[in-house]
């Protein structure tokens, strides 16, 4: 019981020290609270409030935001060209974009981590070299080009766009993980653990992965932002979410079409993306700073 309590206190103290390091940067704290607010708005608010992004009302087409003299309180951000509530579509569109971007990023990171570790830890030099250089070649190809080729084969849809983005980001994750693991394996304590008989599986999970957590975190945040941009770009081009499903990229495209009639509809999706991307980057920067500093250095 004493050991359990001591371990619990250690976890609490580590979290407290981690937060102490994190909150030293005001911008990172602002990013954290902004991201939490965005998560509440796009994931929790639809569970509490009845949000309908699909019902059309042609009598209320292209209403301006409620603060405009021609606006209506029932439609805070106005309505689109089909009379659908724009705030509802923006919330669900942001949820679709971030959800599918998160699926693409996490799945690509997991596969990239496995392939990067296995190729770097492989005892066969030929296999190690082939895998490494193959993905280095793919890494040189723009991710959007890989995504568009994949979508052209599978067909336009949001799930297909997610798969395409995951495939396009895979070389990036493998490349970064490979070099991080390779640098970690060159350190003396790794050689001593191998000499002590530690197998490669234990070495990976107990030593290598915890020590490259900063690389994993920074690449995860950057990859998430890239996935959001790519999914929105694919949706903007008409290869992602198909009507009437709301998504930030497709909403931006439709807003550009009516920019001379309703200017605000072309700005709201872009503003939402800027807020999301900025908050994710700030949170990622704060977490990386905590991992770089370390609890031992903080003490």
3D architecture notes:
The relative contact order is 0.14. The longest helix has about 35 residues. The chain has about 300 residues and is an all-alpha fold. The C terminus is likely disordered. It contains eleven helices and no strands. It starts with a helix and ends with a helix. It is elongated and about 75 Å long. Helix 3 packs parallel to helix 6 and helix 6 runs antiparallel to helix 9.
Give a quick precis of the structure:
With 299 residues, this protein is mostly helical. The protein is built from 11 helices and no strands. α1 packs across α11.
Q: Note the main sheet.
A: none
Q: Can you tell me the residue ranges where pLDDT is under 50 for at least 5 consecutive residues?
A: 295-299
Question: What is the 3D form?
Answer: elongated
Count the DSSP helices. 11
Order of helices and strands: HHHHHHHHHHH
User: Average pLDDT value?
Assistant: 83
Question: What's the arrangement of secondary structure elements?
Answer:
Blueprint lengths: L1 H21 L3 H23 L37 H36 L3 H15 L3 H12 L3 H28 L2 H8 L4 H12 L1 H24 L11 H10 L6 H35 L1
Helix pairs in contact: 1-11, 2-3, 2-11, 3-4, 3-6, 3-9, 4-6, 5-6, 6-9, 9-10, 9-11, 10-11
Question: What keyword list fits this structure?
Answer:
11 helices, mainly alpha, single chain, disordered C terminus
């Amino acid at each position: 019981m004493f050991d359990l309590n001591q371990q619990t206190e250690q976890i609490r103290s580590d979290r407290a020290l981690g937060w102490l390091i994190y909150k030293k940067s005001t911008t990172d704290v602002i990013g954290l609270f902004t991201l939490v607010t965005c998560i509440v708005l796009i994931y929790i608010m639809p569970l509490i409030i009845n949000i309908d992004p699909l019902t059309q009302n042609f009598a209320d087409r292209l209403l301006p935001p409620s603060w405009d003299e021609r606006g209506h309180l029932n439609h805070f951000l106005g309505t689109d060209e089909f009379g659908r509530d724009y705030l509802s579509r923006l919330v669900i569109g942001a949820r679709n974009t971030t959800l599918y971007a998160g699926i693409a990023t996490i799945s690509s990171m997991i596969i990239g981590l496995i392939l990067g570790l296995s190729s770097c830890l492989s005892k066969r030099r030929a296999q190690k070299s082939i895998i490494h250089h193959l993905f280095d070649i793919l890494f040189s190809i723009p991710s959007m080009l890989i995504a568009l080729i994949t979508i052209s084969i599978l067909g336009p849809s949001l799930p297909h766009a997610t798969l395409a983005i995951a495939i396009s980001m895979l070389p990036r994750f493998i490349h970064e993980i490979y070099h991080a693991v390779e640098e970690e394996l060159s350190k003396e304590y790794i050689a001593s653990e191998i000499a002590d008989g530690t197998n490669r599986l234990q070495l990976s999970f107990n030593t290598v992965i915890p020590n490259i957590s900063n690389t994993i975190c920074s690449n995860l945040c950057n990859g998430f932002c890239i996935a959001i941009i790519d999914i929105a770009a694919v949706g903007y081009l008409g290869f992602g979410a198909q009507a009437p499903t709301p998504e930030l990229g497709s909403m931006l495209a439709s807003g550009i079409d009516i920019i001379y009639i309703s200017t605000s509809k072309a700005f709201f999706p872009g503003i939402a993306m800027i807020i999301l991307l900025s908050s994710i980057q700030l949170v990622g920067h704060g977490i990386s700073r905590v991992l770089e500093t370390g609890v031992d250095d903080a003490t």
